[in-house]
Write a structure and sequence with these properties.
With about 325 residues, the protein is of the alpha/beta class. It has a domain of about 220 residues: Rossmann fold (3-Layer(aba) Sandwich). It is built from eleven helices and eleven strands. Helix 3 links the parallel strand 4 and strand 5. Helix 2 packs across helix 3.
């Protein structure tokens, strides 16, 4: 009999790849989605759908008892929201509700894996530094603070066997965030904010999915920082993209104050529409951060994390998918 894994955020970018990897590892997958979720891309996959109510502890306990999961990978959350309260409710409170339900339902859950974010720790202001497991958290956005709060709430639950994963910027097939940059470069336009030196880190989605599945079986009650093990200059992504697409671009450095103005306008328009802005002023704190380089040694030792894709290999695969699926 196959062991069961609940994957939340299943309809999203990372969720799709988690499902694929779980199926490869002979797990019975329960994909947690909303009734309104777009799931056309999941059709054809041998999965079960479930619709947990994250606002209700009792409903979550009933879901746990009904489906008797062996494992949970909690990847659901929001990267943009209309308020601090919305970030905290969805990213932190829902995490706590789900994990507490797993314990109180007495289903003997083997492991709860939380997909957090390196944003929960925040960047460094020193180019020569490196983010480690001992780095004092200093998130620079409400998103990062909500992810840190989720981690703290998870750790407060007695009797829960958990592992926390903190990936840096995730990219790959189906991603819509870094895709915005790829799209601009494909149009021969290469924009940057300001003119500063940066150490950036990234992780290819397949490498994240693989280590998330490994974390079901190994790993301690710790948080593990994840990247591809390298750091890159701010121009590396653009340079590789141009190389793969075989084109030249017009590179421009947008003045910081101009981008802040655009972000302010975007926030106001989104607020009038009762929507979360794609670009907001606070997000610039992450986009303009000096150093996102992180140490992945603990993940290698404890989880057997062995990233296959460096940036060049990952971008090549990603752009190949975008072109094949007519995104580019």
């Amino acid at each position: 009999m196959k062991q069961r894994v609940l994957i939340t955020g299943a309809s999203g970018f990372v969720g799709y790849h988690l499902i694929e990897e779980a199926l490869k590892n002979n797990l019975e997958v329960f994909a947690a989605v909303r009734k309104s979720s777009k799931i056309d891309h999941l059709k054809g996959l041998d999965i079960n759908y479930t619709y947990p109510d994250f606002t209700s502890l009792q409903a979550l306990k009933e879901n746990m008892i009904e489906n008797k999961y062996d494992y949970v990978i909690h990847a659901a959350g929001v990267t943009r929201a209309r308020s601090v309260e919305e970030y905290n409710t969805i990213n932190a409170d829902y995490t706590y509700n789900l994990a507490l339900a797993a314990v109180e339902s007495n289903i003997s859950l083997k492991k709860f894996v939380l997909v957090s974010s390196l944003a929960a720790i925040g960047p460094l202001n020193d180019l020569n530094g490196i983010i480690t497991g001992n780095t004092t958290p200093n998130p620079v956005t409400a998103y990062g603070r909500s992810k840190l709060l989720a981690e703290e709430k998870l750790k407060s639950i007695d009797g829960l066997n958990y592992t926390i994963l903190r990936p840096t910027g995730v990219y790959g097939p189906r991603d819509k965030d870094i895709f915005i940059f790829f799209k601009q470069v494909s149009k021969r336009f290469e924009p940057y904010i300001g003119n500063i030196e940066q150490n950036l880190s990234l992780i290819y989605v397949t490498d994240l999915a693989k280590v998330a599945i490994k974390a079901l079986y190994v790993g301690n009650k710790l948080a593990y920082n994840l990247s591809d093990g390298n750091f890159y200059s701010r121009y590396e992504l653009g340079n590789i993209t141009k190389q793969v697409l075989k084109l030249k671009t017009f590179k421009i450095h947008l003045p910081v104050n101009f981008v802040k103005l655009i972000a302010n306008i975007a926030e106001k328009i989104s607020s009038l529409r009762n929507q979360a802005a794609v670009l907001n002023v606070e997000k610039l704190n992450e986009l303009m951060a000096i150093n996102w380089n992180c140490d992945i040694t603990p993940a290698k030792v404890d989880l057997g994390f062995d990233p296959v894709y460096d940036l060049k290999a990952g971008v090549n695969e990603t752009l190949k998918w975008y072109k094949a699926n007519k995104w580019l």
